[in-house]
Amino acid sequence: MRRTLGLIAAASVGALGAAQVPAQSPEQDSMASQTPGGRNGLFIRDIALDEYMNSIKSMDGATMAAKGPTPDATYARKMIAYRQGAIALARIELKHGLDVEVRRLAHRTIDENTREIAQLEAFLRQHGG
User: Fold this and answer.
1) In whole angstroms, what is the distance from residue 116 CA to residue 106 CA?
2) Which of 6, 56, 106, 120 is most buried, judged by most C-beta within 10 A?
3) Is the CB of residue 84 less than 8 Å from the CB of residue 117?
4) Count of C-beta atoms within a 10 Å radius of residue 67
5) Other CB atoms closer than 10 Å to residue 109's CB: what's the count?
6) Alpha-carbon separation of residue 109 from 26, 40, 55, 81, 100 (angstroms)
7) Measuring CA to CA, how many Å separate 36 from each of 2, 5, 63, 95?
8) pLDDT value at 44 more than 90
């Protein structure tokens, strides 16, 4: 779980333009290559990190661009974009993550945010937003 949470934190920090993930020593490279399925752990980490970064950038752009005719509609549209981003991050965790507890949280994130998006979309339909 620490490894997965560290990856999420690294993606968040990287999205803000802060420090990059430090280089790994040969010993860490060797240890990381011993992941389930025989896949190279650093390679998988790098792929996941790229996916997290791209997802966060996309969510940021969509959230910033979302507008509506009223403050309420603007809020709803921005929250829809934000929640879609949360779902995208959760899907990346499910694709690459190994920790059972974090994967459970990712499933819950998808379920809860899907419900919230439906409520926000219903508000927009009812209020012409």
Assistant:
1) 15
2) 106
3) yes
4) 9
5) 18
6) 36, 28, 15, 14, 14
7) 17, 18, 36, 13
8) no
